[in-house]
Amino acid sequence: MKQLLKGVVLSCAVVGSGAAMADTVINGAGATFPYPVYAKWAEQYNKETGVKLNYQAIGSGGGIKQIVANTVDFGASDAPLDKAQLDKEGLVQFPAVMGSIVPVVNLQGIKAGEMKLSGSVLADIYMGKVKFWDAAEIAKLNAGLKLPHTPIYAVHRSDGSGTTYNFSDYLTRVSADWSKTVGTGKEVAWPKEAHQLGGKGNAGVANFVKRTKGAIGYVEFAYAKTNNLTYTQMQNKAGAFVMPTMEAFMAAAANADWAHAPGFKLILNDQPGAASWPMTAATFILMHKEQANPATAKEVLKFFKWGYEKGDNLASELEYVPMPDNVVKMVEDMWRGDIKSDKGQAVYQ
Amino acid sequence: MLRALPRDGDNFFRRASFASAGLISVLMFALMASLVVGAWPALHKFGPGFFFSDDWNPVTEQFGAANALYGTLVSSFIAVLLALPVGLAVSIFLSELCPQWLSRPLSIAIELLAAVPSIIYGMWGLFVFAPWFGESFQVWASDHLADLPVVGTLFQGPPMGVGLLTSGIILAFMILPILTSLIKEALSTVPNVLREATYGIGATQFEVIAKVLLPAVKGPIFGALILALGRALGETMAITFVIGGAQTIETSLFMPATSISATIAEQFNEATGQLHISSLIGLGLVLFMITFVVMGTARVLLRRNRK
């Protein structure tokens, strides 16, 4: 019996140490929104370098909690933290990849990209001020489009999400009424004046919109595309109507003023430029400034560096927008300057 | 060591089982205490109003449990209301009318319903049942029932397929196995002498069932019903899929709503504010108290009848 136990303990120890030696594992947790792209990157990166990434998509809130508690090597959040919050917890933050949100509708005879909407009309729809599809506000933007007299069903995310955070942030920027009565959050009190329907996750919203005649919803572009949903054009800050395309998302990203955003806290909604898509959002990575384990921290940074450089195509395949080169440069400068070992040495050269 | 057991065995066994029983009670109180502690910031801030307010606004940090409480109670009530007649009929059929060769496979099939994971019910509900239900029953109901006085308001609203009624129906499927097996069990405890005597004085099968068997198992049926209600109250995954995720209280059963467990499941991950988290734990406390009372009542009723 004793010998058997000894054997078991020994073999466990051997297996354990063997696994630890064979490959480096980096642990991250947080936002669900970028999960598909991190998973794809991790798979490819593992093939090339043998480094394993273990990313748990537990939600932005969980990501923030875990990095503060120091149980993961990096946290991920869709909603950026304030500079003050970052400093208080001894964290730094940088954008990893961007995504965009598109309104999708279900109306007979109306095809993808045909309907035009503006931010204020979108806000009025979700506040129940515009109740029918042939209302004057919508008709004015869509001369020549045959709009039915159908009630509007406003579909939203029923779970707390970064997508809702960015969507409600956009409406807060473009509508004074929305900002006064509803505001910005991962979960908001949806105005009861509208026919509201809550779907779980992007998939839930896509499902409800697909099924309900007269529905409107908001999803990540990838979901609109893969589900063949009828997306709309949007009027941007410059007053131009734009289609949701990779070029329009990139334009929004390029026009954003990252250089003057303390702690990279920048929300890309409603950016200037005639070609910019108005609902574009970055998702962020959080790390400790002072690293007790600099070797692992270096692996994390190397992974994201690889993602910026070689993960571009993988990201765009999944309809995410890669970070522009000038932003990557700023991020790398921050890595060099701010992330140090506990002996004060820079982790990243 | 083994040889010493017979002498002290009884004593040892009694103590061990007493300790285990004690552990369960300690665990339960610990659970309750940690819920109260977690919910305290919300309870302190909103007071008793937390249980009655229908305001749920994470942006302004105003929280009230009324929406979720309403959805939980109404959907569970619908489930019990729908499942009771079906469960009764099935268990009477199985124990009284069904031929021997069919009874076993049929019982097993019903018990297998209980083995289906709740997320499967949720997905089936969302992708298969809700679209069909919306297009067929809800469209028909809003044409024919919505104008009726009083009950009409229950059936007004857009045929979206999801909502309170849909959740109630899905829940009814989920509680049917427990209801059926408990009632069947109760019917099987009725002594055969009673049946034979009633047939002996010339009663029909219907009279035997309605006048002798059912009155004899009244208590257990009620107990089974409440156990099933307890199951329905706590159900999370299936409800989250089909209830429609809207923090409102509407009179129409077609409108989307939310339940306590669905609200917690959907918001806990992304809740960052202390008051938000505390309010979600407060919802957990409310659910704990409701199910505690309901299950306790069921146990008392079941026990009283057994004596």
Describe the secondary structure blueprint for this structure:
The complex is a heterodimer of chains A (349) and B (307).
Chain A: H1 2-22, E1 25-30, H2 35-49, E2 52-56, H3 60-68, E3 74-77, H4 83-89, E4 91-105, E5 116-117, H5 119-126, H6 136-141, E6 153-157, H7 162-174, H8 176-181, E7 195-199, H9 201-211, E8 215-220, H10 221-226, E9 230-231, E10 233-235, E11 241-242, H11 246-255, E12 280-288, E13 290-291, H12 294-310, H13 312-317, H14 325-338, E14 340-341
Parallel strand pairs in A: 1-2, 1-3, 5-10, 6-7, 6-8, 13-14
Antiparallel strand pairs in A: 3-12, 4-8, 4-9, 4-12, 10-11
Helix pairs in contact in A: 5-7
Chain B: H1 5-46, H2 49-52, E1 56-57, E2 62-63, H3 66-97, H4 100-115, H5 118-144, H6 164-188, H7 192-200, H8 205-216, H9 218-234, H10 237-242, H11 260-267, H12 274-306
Antiparallel strand pairs in B: 1-2
Helix pairs in contact in B: 1-12, 3-6, 3-9, 3-11, 4-6, 5-6, 6-9, 7-8, 9-12, 11-12
Sum this structure up briefly:
The complex is a heterodimer of chains A (349) and B (307). Chain A has 349 residues and is of the alpha/beta class. Chain A has 14 helices and 14 strands.
